[in-house]
Specification:
The model has no long low-confidence stretch (mean pLDDT 97). The termini are far apart. This protein has 459 residues and is α/β, with parallel strands linked by helices. It has 17 helices and 15 strands. 42% of the residues lie in helices and 16% in strands. Helix 4 runs antiparallel to helix 14 and helix 15 runs parallel beside helix 17. The strands form 3 sheets. Strands 4-10-9-8-7-5-6 form a 7-stranded mixed beta sheet, sandwiched between helices. It has a 4-stranded mixed beta sheet with strand order 1-2-3-13. A hairpin with a 2-residue loop joins strand 11 and strand 12. It binds 3-[O-phosphonopyridoxyl]--amino-benzoic acid (PXG). The site of 3-[O-phosphonopyridoxyl]--amino-benzoic acid (PXG) has 17 residues, from helix 6.
């Protein structure tokens, strides 16, 4: 127990990890047999493991390291804040400068009509807060029957009980008897897999109209909110057809139902705008935020609240019986504020919009010629590839994702971290990625696709 952990080699760390650490979203038995990859350090867009292998991290950690690794200024801000005020809460009529600073900065970069923030520790907690806040809002409004939240199949909204229930991952619902009551799901706007013979535009309208059908089925007076990611992330970087969001907005305007946009992945520059809500002009009532809020340097999330809901809660809401020990944690808040200032001062969001986003999308689309690739899609610095053995037919492998896993493993061997969701390959690199690093990403991705195709006898 006294051995310095830094003195242990990879095998020793793997053995201790297997014996004492239960990993998230992991088959513990399999991992114990194979041994975890041990990451030791990171800089810019690169990671190193304990065996000295260098990898280009095309996932920005878990979609979160927007300003890249190795930002000493964020470490310094945390160090200073820990010495001055390492912790205090925001309950019982108290506040502190770091949380005030962060709240005003978020209001500054958010859509104009959104000026308040409720803080929490993660994206899941943000969506738990959403559930409680929208129901509280309708209670205050004298419409307590408006409780049901409509979400979408294959959405990801977190892993807490409310987060996983709001999410539409059936394989998550199977563990723990989810979803909880009062949450229903409509189909997703996934043209590649579910669009059938319709054009993307016609399918976009059809997928959106499922919302109206569901509202009419439940009764407008029973529906509190619709929640959605602007672009589904973990579900497979599903970029909706251009007709989808305008039709959703038309429907929500017709009925008195709140729009909650889950910006946990799209927020803080991923699409080349500050929020996916700016990219699609969504004007949400609430936005869930996390990940890029602190670029993952410290855990923090929040709910950005539009003026309509905020004013009601402030003027008529009384006490909101909800909050977390770490709501607005001073060190997290100071680091998140410094992270937003880096995004602002270095013009990173504009660079994604005008330079690196268009360049990545151009180079990424070159992969459409690959025999294994059925579709290439993406926006800004997020992208997906559909792997197929029948190019042009929009079919997928019927193999429970083993082709995707094979391709991901070839990526890792080539020194590239790319994620597989089933047979959909996904990238979401740090927003500071350069043109040269994008070229390296593309070279390695193509190499991994070639090796996968050869292994399958397709090339
Ligand atoms: N909403 C969205 C849109 C997310 O992507 C969450 C909420 C939950 O955030 P927290 O901070 O509670 O994890 C997320 C998180 C994956 C993967 O496999 C994606 C997430 C988390 C874990 C795995 O792509 N996204």
């Amino acid at each position: 127990m006294t051995t310095d952990i830094k003195s242990l080699d990879t095998a020793q760390l793997q053995a201790l990890d297997r014996d004492h650490h239960l990993h998230p979203f992991t088959d513990a038995l399999l991992l114990g047999q194979e041994g975890a990859r041990v990451i030791s350090r990171a800089e810019g867009v690169y990671l190193w493991d304990t065996d000295g292998n260098k990898m280009l991290d095309a996932m920005a950690g878990l979609w979160c390291v927007n300003v890249g690794y190795g930002r000493k200024e964020l470490a310094e801000v945390a160090f200073k804040q820990m010495q001055e005020l390492p912790y205090y809460n925001a309950f019982f009529k108290t506040t502190h400068a770091p949380v005030v600073d962060l709240a005003r900065l978020i209001a500054q970069v958010s859509p104009a009509h959104m000026n308040h923030v409720f803080f929490c520790g993660s994206g899941s907690e943000a969506n738990d807060t959403v559930l409680r806040m929208v129901r509280h809002f309708w209670d205050v409004k004298g419409k307590p029957a408006k409780k049901t939240i409509i979400s979408r199949v294959n959405a990801y909204h977190g892993s807490t009980v409310a987060g996983a229930s709001l999410g539409g991952m059936t394989w998550m619902h199977e563990q723990g008897d989810l979803p909880i009551p009062g949450i229903v799901h409509i189909d997703q706007p996934y043209w590649y897999k579910e669009g059938g013979d319709l054009t993307p535009e016609a399918f976009g309208v059809k997928a959106a109209q499922a919302l109206e059908t569901k509202i009419l089925e439940l009764g407008e007076d029973n529906v509190a909110a619709f929640i959605a990611e602007p672009i589904q992330g973990a579900g497979g970087v599903i970029v909706p057809p251009s007709t989808y969001w305008p039709e959703i907005k038309r429907i929500l305007d017709k009925y008195d139902i709140l729009l909650v946009v889950d910006e946990v992945i799209c927020g803080f520059g991923r699409t080349g705008e500050w929020f996916g809500s700016d990219f699609y002009d969504l004007k949400p009532d609430l936005m869930s935020i996390a990940k890029g809020l602190s670029s993952g340097y410290l855990p923090i999330g929040g709910v950005v609240v539009g003026d309509r809901v905020a004013q009601t809660l402030v003027d008529e809401g009384g006490e909101f019986n909800h909050g977390y020990t770490y709501s607005g944690h001073p060190v997290d808040a100071a680091v998140a504020a410094a992270n937003i200032r880096i995004l602002l001062d270095e013009g990173i969001v504009e660079r994604v919009r005008d330079e690196t986003g268009p360049y990545l999308q151009k180079r990424w689309r070159e992969l459409a010629d690959h025999p294994l690739v059925g579709e290439v899609r993406g926006v800004g610095l997020v992208g997906a590839l559909e792997l197929t053995n029948d190019k042009g037919a929009r079919t997928c492998f019927d193999d429970k994702g083993s082709t995707g896993t094979m391709c991901r493993d070839f990526c890792n061997k080539a020194g590239l971290v790319m994620r597989a969701t089933g047979d959909t390959m996904i990238i979401s690199p740090p927003l500071v990625i350069t043109h040269e690093e994008i070229d390296e990403l593309l070279m390695k991705a193509r190499q991994a696709l070639d090796l996968t195709a050869k292994e399958l006898g397709i090339m």
